[in-house]
Amino acid sequence: MSSLYRYADYLPQPTPENFPSPVRNREKINPLKAGSFFPEFFIEEARVINAGPLLNNAHSGASLHSLTLQPLVVVFYSWHWNNYADQLIERLKESHAAITAAGARLLVLSSEDKKQFTSVYPEALPFDVVHDAQYRIARKAGIYRESDPIWGFVSGVNADVPVPAAYLITPSLEISYDFVDLYLQEEFSPEAVVAAIGKKLAISA
């Protein structure tokens, strides 16, 4: 009996894509939570992508402490979150006026640099956007670690970037509101932020 076509019905196995596997026994990200204090950081002028009310005159850079003369909403962003990222920017554009009217300012920290960010959003935005180079601020916030990459637990994200997060930081650098979306399954709520701003200002009055 001929064996010429014995294995004809067996398809060759596809070659898997060469992605490095997450580190075994990895140290997981540990996001900051409300009640803790946000570590100080400094924004260099060269990292400013879009200069809004906060950084329009900060020609020599600015520290976090100098930006929190009133409550500051800090939102992390990456275009590698795909449609989630676009929806986040749209919510921020729509809610910026309400956040400002509530007595706070808005700062967006982008994982992408100015050239990359403006290729997606070429128009001027009403809020400040800064490049978080090498995820330095995201590391301080506990939302990025090389040992626990987002692509290891979120399908569709193929880049090593932070997870989505937003914080309301008071003048004392205390976090009074936090939003962290580990699996990109929730929606950032500007209404919740505005409510938290009003509550904090009422307590401080």
Automatic annotation (TrEMBL):
Annotated GO MF terms: antioxidant activity; oxidoreductase activity
Protein name: Peroxiredoxin
Domain Alkyl hydroperoxide reductase subunit C/ Thiol specific antioxidant: 62-177
Superkingdom in the source lineage: Bacteria
Organism for this UniProt entry: Chitinophaga ginsengisegetis
SUPFAM superfamilies with a match to the protein in the record: Thioredoxin-like
InterPro entries hit by this protein: AhpC/TSA (IPR000866), Thioredoxin-like_sf (IPR036249)
Residue runs in coiled coils: none
Phylogenetic classification of the source organism: Bacteria, Pseudomonadati, Bacteroidota, Chitinophagia, Chitinophagales
Gene3D superfamilies: Glutaredoxin
